[in-house]
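Dear colleague,

Thank you for sharing your sequence with our group. We've completed the structure prediction you requested, and as agreed, I am returning the results in plain text so they can be pasted directly into your records. Please verify that the sequence below matches your submission; if there's any discrepancy, let me know and we will rerun it promptly.
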Amino acid sequence: EKLEKKFYFIDDSYETIFNIVCNDLDVINYALLKKLHRTILKLSNESYWLLGNGGEGKSTTLIRLALESAIKDKSSFYIDFENISLKKESIKDMIQYIKNNTSNKAYIFIDNPDIKIDLVEIFFEQIVKDNFEFVIVLTERKNRYDYLKNTNKNAIYVPHQTNLDNFLVLTISNNIKQQVYEKFYTLLGEKNKKIEDIINATIKEKNLAFVNATYKILYELSKVEFINYKFDWLEYKDIAKEYFNSLEDSYKYIAFFYYFRIKIPFSLFEKLYQDETQDLKSFISYYSKANRSETNKEPIIFEKLKLSAFDSIYFMRAKHEIIAELFFDDIKDFTNEE
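Please find the predicted structure tokens below.
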């Protein structure tokens, strides 16, 4: 239940989604999966894109497709390009590993390509040179895909690809939405007319992205005191007051960078708060311990990249890019100087 709450109350980290899918705790759209399987089986040495709005289940669908492909005895590989250790030098070794472990055709599933789109382009170029059969399935927001199509086609299409309409725009049917919110309802632990009315009213709102709808439900439920819920930035502020008081307003910088899909490096964070040496140390200490906890429910994602036995660098980000968007919808406290 703890894992489900992390997922259904919006945590888009690879570990959470992967564990949810592997334990069959996601709501599976079997019709969509069948359609995608039929499509990718027909492809050869091409890229294929799953497009959609933020928070509409692209990553979950991709991981589910990768897992089901592996179950069907396909050579299936999943790569998260948000992995901070992924570098240009890794690409060749990665492709060699895929080649060595492929029996017939390699099915490669890439998440978060926009974060390192230059590496995607190198990946495309290199895999063609290695001369084995493959299909690459990637996820992206439709607007970002359209931008890349107009500015850098090499980051979308495998070299010499002839079919340039290889994409599917994901939409969530009302039936799937209803199943997700049934799970959501169950996790809240108690049947209640107020919560039912709030969920039903939110589901009916048009043009409201899935994650935004979930946050709206949580917000409305907290207002009627059905649940004790705080948005991530308020939770972060409470933690800061207790452990690193001078940094209590710092969530806005983390959110601002992740609004543009950039993780803020701690080295920059230090410059913003260069006079708060002790609280910066307390911040590192707190989040290093929190990350080791199996029940980690922290309001930010804190990542450590080990460079050597004695040297590491740290990065922070919001739990979901849509949370960063919601933050700036709700809070507007940047000064002109900032």
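Summary note from our side: The first helix runs from residue 2 to 8.

Kind regards,
the structure core
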